[in-house]
Amino acid sequence: MAVPHWLFGDQLGPHFLTGRSDTPVVMIEARSVFRRRRFHRAKAHLVLSAMRHRAAELGDRVRYVRAETYREGLREAVGDGPVTVGHPTSYAALRLVRSLESVTVLPARGFLVAHDDFRAWADGHGGGRLRQEDFYRWVRRSHDLLMDGDRPAGDRWNHDHDNREPPPKGARTLGAPRPYRPREDEIDDEVRRDLDRWEREDSVAFVGRDGPRLFPATRREALAALRRFVEHRLAGFGPHEDAMLAGDPVMSHSLLSSSLNLGLLDPAECVERAEDAWRAGHAPVNSVEGFVRQVAGWREYVWQLYWYFGEDYRHRNALRHHEPLPEWFLELDADAVRARCLATVLAQVRDTGWTHHIPRLMLLGSHALQRGWDPLAVTDWFHRSFVDGYDWVMVPNVVGMSQYADGGRMTTKPYTSGGSYVNRMSDLCGGCAYRPGARTGDRACPFTTGYWAFLHRHRARLERNPRMAQPVRGLDRLADLDEVLQQEGRRGDTPP
């Protein structure tokens, strides 16, 4: 009899079950996951819906156990018998499966590059300051991805110059075709009833709002979402991928991250379909390259660095930021916030568990960085609050990029800005209580004052950074710097 294979809740696509079609499957729904941390309600619903849908698809082949812990569930499913499992996506889960004598851990799936191949590449680059652009070009070459022989498609590796346009002037939306949205079914209803009961009876608490489900929970839905994006939205993705519009939070983004991170889609099929669209003349190269960069470049890079940097990386705090996250942020209380940009994005997270990469980095992350919030707590918040948030995703993204807590091992500079950037790349400053160019007074933009206070606080470190030296010198031109710093100090952790 074949050895059962254990599927975690982010290993739900067919590529996690290759081999014999009669291999028994084990799936475990562990209540302790939700008891330990306060996840976004929409995220909890999506993960449980996806797991239960996958179990329904597998039918009699799966033993689906609902237990307090994974250990208890595995004991109920297979006793002391042997079981295999794909390499998990977090250090905690890997420690668990390696501690169980009956479990054999198989290589990771769901990514383009094997761990050993990345380690060889990284070690060959000295293992220190690893740059995503170098890795991305290596992946493109080694996978013959968006290439014309030895040359990159369109004769350029990087189309960022064409993909950083502000939103069209006066436009409330991009006018892109609507993204795919799934229809809920009886499994979704069952999950929602269970979550309600856990909140009433089982000391389980969530944050944010839930319903209706906005993201795929099945392979069929995920493929429909991929098809919808490639055929109708990919062509317009590139130019405005870094822009923000208050009335159009999804713009032309793919909304495929949760499907990829649940394992419903394989990254290879996503980038191959995008490339096919370019070769067929259905999408311009800059849009296709922008999407390929996100999936085969950044996503792959973050996954590999999570393992390469080691488990202690999450505790890096080069800037010595230790301020706790304020209650209004933890509770996603957008109504308490006056700054229109931050209130708009916080409301998007509260209502959907999602917002695209620029609000995450340049609004939510930038505000946390300027305030000096503890990067470990910020990482945990992003993990819990986003439907596509997992430990491997958020540790490098937040510690390394958003909060610059590794001191520059992953990125060349801190990603933060004043209000002028927000004003240029969005319509979020219109109608705001603050003015993006104001540094002092009642209408001083919190991002502008926060930016200058951040540069001042870390001047000794940042003035040695070639990419930050010029902004830091700008401090010397501020005649009102003392007033800016005093004003920023008075703000404390009150909502901006």
From TrEMBL:
<dbReference type="InterPro" id="IPR014729">
    <property type="entry name" value="Rossmann-like_a/b/a_fold"/>
</dbReference>
<feature type="compositionally biased region" description="Basic and acidic residues">
    <location>
        <begin position="149"/>
        <end position="167"/>
    </location>
</feature>
<dbReference type="InterPro" id="IPR007357">
    <property type="entry name" value="PhrB-like"/>
</dbReference>
<dbReference type="Pfam" id="PF04244">
    <property type="entry name" value="DPRP"/>
</dbReference>
<protein>
    <submittedName>
        <fullName>Cryptochrome/photolyase family protein</fullName>
    </submittedName>
</protein>
<dbReference type="InterPro" id="IPR036134">
    <property type="entry name" value="Crypto/Photolyase_FAD-like_sf"/>
</dbReference>
<dbReference type="InterPro" id="IPR052551">
    <property type="entry name" value="UV-DNA_repair_photolyase"/>
</dbReference>
<feature type="region of interest" description="Disordered">
    <location>
        <begin position="149"/>
        <end position="188"/>
    </location>
</feature>
